[in-house]
Amino acid sequence: MIEVKGLSKRYGPKTAVDGVSFTVQPGMVTGFLGPNGAGKSTTMRMIMGLDRPTSGTATVNGKPYAAHRAPLTEVGALLEAKAIHPGRSARNHLLALAATHRIPARRVDEVIDMTGLTQVARKRAGGFSLGMGQRLGIATALLGDPRTLILDEPVNGLDPEGVLWVRNLARYLAGEGRTVFLSSHLMSEVALTADHVLVIGRGKILADAPVNTFIDAETQKTVLVRTPDATRLAELATSDGVTIASDEPGLLTVTGLDAPAIGELAAREGIVLHELTPQTSTLEAAYMALTADSVEYRTGEPGADTPAEAAAPEGANR
Ligand SMILES: Nc1ncnc2c1ncn2[C@@H]1O[C@H](COP(=O)(O)OP(=O)(O)OP(=O)(O)O)[C@@H](O)[C@H]1O
Questions:
Q1: Which intervals of the chain are annotated as region Disordered (predicted)?
Q2: Domain 220-279 classified CATH 1.10.3680?
Q3: Residue owning the nearest CA to atom 11 of ligand 1
């Protein structure tokens, strides 16, 4: 379990993390989402004792990281900065780490096997592709068979097979009762992997909820209706709290009424329906709705009149 209380980090005038409190529970995968520069990596680094908080506390399995006598068996982390000697082989890197943490050498071969690195384990890590480097980072995180895993962008650089592997691994580890905390920019991936999401924007926690609760809270349910009598149905369905949009003749997107209510209204009025489809909202839509005001680095719309907004400097936010 990870417990963070009132955690803040300031870099000079910049507040990277602003008094965040949350708990990451064992037995599930928690996704950590937020726009670029929102404070995800800084938060994870403070949990791992790599950055000193300006204020607040972070504990893993009940203690600050540095207070654990055998930290690698408590927490395994994949963080962005790679601390591996480029001339060393992956196996030797893991063996050296195992030796200094009293982890048996056979565990090195286990994690090499688990992460699919067997073919390249004796090659210089300096020649590794981004994906192989990620696998080695995950192997390093798993080395101590830790109860808690912190993975910053674990699918970065992985091919589709690698992405699927990380998803299955994260779910498997959570299924064993471990705490799995991972950040990702890939919303569809987080939707498939995580049970719970924490959303951070400009250093503050914006949401802390089960994935489905978060999606329901941040998005409006819509129903797609196809009918040759669209104008009449739209007139009959319009009331307080109901909005109807029509992007093409005969097609309505209804917000504020569910599919059974629309179907029953149509039946009462003798209106023929060709399609009645509840639209499922996505994690991406919920995330976009929530973080719209928290984006630090915003790009202009393609084809918009003012393309100069791309990579706007800090402080130029709206
Ligand atoms: N060492 C540092 N010195 C100064 N500012 C920093 C430092 N590290 C991070 N920051 C700033 O703190 C803020 C949070 O950065 P952080 O890397 O935690 O965000 P993030 O959510 O991980 O972003 P990304 O998704 O782009 O990785 C950013 O504005 C960043 O520029």
A1: 298-318
A2: no
A3: 16
